[in-house]
Write a structure and sequence with these properties.
It is a single chain. The protein has twelve helices and eleven strands. Helix 5 runs antiparallel to helix 8 and helix 11 packs across helix 12. The protein is α+β, with helices and mostly antiparallel strands and 316 residues long. Strand 4 and strand 5 form a beta hairpin.
């Protein structure tokens, strides 16, 4: 790990101001991903700005009947919140399916949004990786690609997004609130928050340098049966091979998002309309244009079979 300086800030304004005055700065809160990356020198910030004490750890109702989740809300607290469990069960279930209890106690809502891919080539500094070192190549393409994306990839990167929480947030149509170094705030749909890899896979999100996540907002509850089904190599503490986040209404309509298949939580609104026709029709829309390798082609039938099980469970 390379040396760095450190400071703790008390307000979002102080955080963005500190970022603006220090080249190579990074925000840190729970540190459950960033510290690992620093140990491997994949991330080498010159200065860490500790935002963990910001007053952004509340979960509050919004005027339109939704819920506003502060950026510093811990994953454990969010999963256990009575309003989340009652009205956004999909989110609670996805959070509990992610990581270990110890990690959920430290991980924050904002940090979960920003965690980086678990592609093994990204974590191996001896291997080429355009996401870690732009222009160096992609060892996953033509390499061991069992865990990689089948949709949304590019000739430069086929890494997947690792979060469970964000898959649920995508199905719930969440928005991300931010403030930039000039004090300007904005709200971005989770649907538009992640960049397609294209030729610049090192840029994961649409955040500008120094732009700080302050909250995530959920629209008012939509009811229905909420199911999050995660398929992984072992029963606990493993990232998803694929995951299915579904909200199913009594009339068979609903919405579906997938994890483990693309660079972001994968949802195709046109696929939602196919829900009454069953898993095969929905999967065909969701994974239209998929480009699997021989090693990860199993994900296509796995999505369909998992979704079929989810829909059967929803019907009771």
């Amino acid at each position: 790990m390379k040396s760095f300086t450190y400071e703790r800030v008390e307000t979002p304004a102080a955080a963005t101001a500190a970022f603006a005055k220090t080249k190579g700065a990074r925000f840190i809160a729970g540190g459950t991903n960033l510290l690992d990356l620093m140990k491997l020198e994949i991330e080498t910030p010159s200065h860490l700005i500790d935002v963990s004490r910001l007053a952004l750890a509340k979960i509050e109702p919004t005027d339109d009947g939704g819920l506003r989740i502060g950026a510093m809300v811990r994953n454990t607290d969010l999963a256990a919140d009575a309003r989340v469990r009652r009205d956004y069960g999909l989110l609670s279930r996805a959070l509990v399916a992610g990581a270990s209890g110890q990690l959920r106690n430290k991980a924050t809502t904002a940090g979960n949004l920003l965690q980086r891919t678990r592609c093994p080539y990204f974590y191996d500094p001896n291997m080429p990786c355009n996401k870690r070192k732009p222009g160096s190549g992609c060892a996953a393409i033509g390499g061991f690609s069992r865990l990689h994306a089948v949709v949304g990839g590019s000739d430069a990167c086929i890494a997947t997004h690792p979060s469970d929480m964000v898959v649920a947030m995508r199905a719930l149509d969440a928005w991300v609130e931010t403030v930039d170094v000039a004090g300007k705030t904005r709200s971005v749909p989770v649907a538009d928050f992640y960049r397609a890899p294209g030729t610049t896979p090192h840029l994961d999100t649409v955040l500008a340098p120094g732009e700080l996540i302050t909250a995530v907002t959920l629209p008012k509850p939509v009811g229905g049966t909420h199911i999050y089904q995660k398929v992984r190599d072992r029963a606990s503490y493993a990232f998803a091979l694929i995951s299915v986040a579904a909200i199913v209404q009594k009339d068979g309509s609903g919405r579906v998002a997938l994890g483990g298949v693309g660079y972001k939580p994968w949802r195709v609104e046109a696929a939602d309309a196919e829900l009454p026709r069953g898993a095969k029709a929905v999967t065909a829309k969701l994974l239209a244009g998929a480009k699997p390798s021989h090693e990860n082609a199993y994900k296509l039938p796995l999505v369909e079979r998992t979704l079929a099980g989810v829909l059967a469970q929803a019907r009771g």
